[in-house]
Amino acid sequence: MNTTFSDDLFRRFRDLLLTRSGLYFPDHRRSDLHHCLTMVLPATGYATLEALYAAAVVDDKTLHTVIEGVTVGETYFFRNTSQFTALRDRILPDLIARREVIRSLRFWSAGCATGEEPYSLAILLHEALPDPDAWQITILATDINTAFLNRARAGVYGAWSFRETDPALRDRYFERLEGTRWRIRSDLRRQVLFARLNLVEDEYPAVMNGTTMQDVILCRNVLIYFDDDTIRAVVRRLYRALTPGGWLIVGHAEARSDFFAQFEVVNCPGTVIYRKPLHAPLFDEAIPSVPARQMVRPLSTTSADVASLLLPAPAAPSPSFVSDTPVADNAAPDTLAVARQAADRGDLATAMRLCETMVQHQPLSAEAHLLNGQILEQQGRLDEALAAYRRAVYLDHSLYLALLAMAGILHRTGHVDEAYRAYRRLLRALATLPPHAPVPSFDNATAAELQMFIQRQMEALRR
To answer: Residue 440 domain-assigned?
Structure first.
């Protein structure tokens, strides 16, 4: 096995990782990159790093393997105690006071690694909220590394992950397994939605992947792996993903004022946190899509991630649409695309108006009713969202996403029997597809994988 790492090969790997994942390896980290690639090489079946590079350029699976080999998953529960103290003592009281009426909170762990951070957040919320069961809590956890996400979904951890955790807290929220391993309680595990997302790609904030209107975003020890241009692009998108008054927490080494000029700076004991101003527009103006890097070819979303998010990728908008122009029937696809664009940037009012326009001109458009339901669900209007999903399913029985969304609302609102029937109906529909066939509107997810996901949901209903 040849692990020679010439100057030219270093530059090519460095540029490939930068353009395809945003990971930045400057010259002083050349030895780190070489070490990681050397460790990855045996598992790939290639004899040389040169051959590995050639494969990574053309094959997403190989590239994913390389990315997983060079990303760092070192983390543990309640890492950086001062930041969790700020969450408990500064951020949560603010959110509880402002959200007491609707009792709904949205959190996003961006760069969640193996899951210790979002699970720490779930535990903190359970401990700190006066009546946690009375609140609708959403915790989204994303990472670029699919191997980390699989470990996070399993929720099993060794003693090293608890090195700053009170043993009493660990015993309260984890089940002891063999040896020195513990598994997170199933009720907390179900609170967290894990999905693959590359922070460098311009795919968020978007209603379609659940990254809009966040109350708190934790993006800690992630930005340090990017160059300055990439950091600025990521921070702009994170700012847009926050609701007015929302909070951003980054790693201690990442708190550079020039990156966070749009935010208010809040000093807490032992840490600095950032807040989107309360007076910021509820719906930010669309920011021109300028990727931090021109992607050679975007990394595909894995089917396991699609099953976790239960949402498709947003459609590309039509640049020629003018919203004040009456919509003809043959313009309906453009109307739907622009409605999705408005929803993605958080302008739900415009998105809803466009959906209503489309429904008026194309009342049999199942896709319009589906998007209408997604917007209503985002606004917390679950009864109306459910009705929209029912209309979408009625118009197109093969619109599996609408049926799954309908089942999800029934599940969340405690309509156990109806949810079970909806899941079972979807299972029957998926059974008509070849097991390895991709399911329409679910990107790369196969029928077999979605069946497994739905079966787990049905099992949860019967617990």
So the answer is: yes
